[in-house]
Design goal:
The chain is α/β, with parallel strands linked by helices. Helices cover 33% and strands 21% of the residues. Its main location: cytoplasm.
Length: 316
């Protein structure tokens, strides 16, 4: 059986990555509007005529697209932040909980997770669920992404020649300085936290790949959990998962650094638990491709689940 897919916003960074992953598959047929993509009637027809629609649009445009869909048979994946905490939308992180895949499979509307939240939720949700981190604990998350996470404008800035057009010369830039980043509600809700996380994002002068870090003072936690208990909770949560893995403690103890581009081009997410020798502090680190498991790869994984296909199709 061949499924028809319409990518609304295929010319954007995420849309192009998704199209690349889908267009060679014999089990899928892409609906391509070409020069007609700004034709409202053609777009409405595509949105309602496909088996599945993937929205790669800014938030307001995504909401507009959803309002145009009146065919209850069309499955919708939205890659924007518009619906990540909205009622009636399944959160598209299949590994997040035991019943999440089934929820995604039976839902018409699925919101694709953000790249930073994917790493953060993967690290923290199991610890909150296990009672090792209280729901009201003041959690901080520090993260750095390649500039492709900022979309076309940031890509153009960083890839432009500085002498010609004022392109970026900085090696590293902190942003989100008002502490009102749009990912905070998503990060807070889907970890089970009751207090907003303190999120400090940054962008590096490289194209893609990211590190998401959560530092913890173990003695400040109610049970003063050991690094081994934190690690064990993550191992238990992701046992048997194809795309999420937890590094062995023996491996992390021997590491002297982590390269943020280490999983580029994959749909994998790798979690690490580091601890100091006195057992007083822990440093949780997630490694992923912000355009892979953090965006396009995750969308393809969700699409496969919603269509009843092997979720790794086109991703391995």
């Amino acid at each position: 059986m061949t499924h028809t897919i319409f990518i609304d916003g295929e010319a954007g960074t995420t849309g192009l990555e998704i199209r690349e992953r889908l267009e060679a598959r014999p089990d899928l047929k892409l609906i391509l509007l070409g020069d007609r993509r700004r034709d409202a009637d053609a777009r409405r027809e595509a949105l309602n005529g496909a088996d599945a629609v993937i929205l790669c649009l800014p938030d307001d445009a995504a909401r507009e697209a959803v309002s145009m869909i009146d065919n209850p048979s069309v499955k919708v994946i939205d890659a924007s932040t518009a619906y990540r905490v909205a009622p009636g939308w399944a959160y598209g992180f299949p590994e997040m909980d035991a019943g999440q895949r089934a929820l995604i499979a039976r839902s018409q509307f699925v919101s694709n997770p953000g790249c930073y939240p994917t790493g953060f939720i993967a690290l923290v949700r199991p610890l909150v669920k296990a009672g090792l981190v209280p729901a009201n604990y003041p959690v901080t998350v520090n993260a750095v992404s390649g500039y492709s996470g900022g979309g076309k404008a940031m890509i153009a800035e960083f890839e432009a020649a500085p002498k010609d057009s004022g392109g970026a010369t900085t090696a590293y830039r902190a942003y989100g300085l008002t502490l009102r980043h749009k990912h905070v509600p998503e990060m807070t809700k889907h970890t089970g936290l009751s207090r907003d996380v303190l999120f400090t994002p940054a962008v590096g002068n490289y194209r893609q790949g990211m590190l998401v870090e959560v530092p913890l003072h173990l003695a400040a936690l109610p049970e003063t959990p050991s690094v081994e208990r934190l690690h064990g909770a993550l191992v238990e949560a992701y046992d048997g998962q194809r795309f999420v893995e937890v590094a062995d403690l023996e491996e992390t103890e021997a590491m002297t650094g982590i390269e943020p581009q280490g999983l580029n081009g994959t749909n994998r997410l790798r979690l690490h638990v580091f601890g100091d020798r006195n057992g007083e502090q822990a440093r949780l680190v997630a490694l992923l491709d912000n355009l892979g498991k953090g965006a396009s790869g995750a969308a393809v994984q969700n699409l496969n689940i919603m269509l009843g296909l092997d979720e790794a199709t086109g991703l391995v």
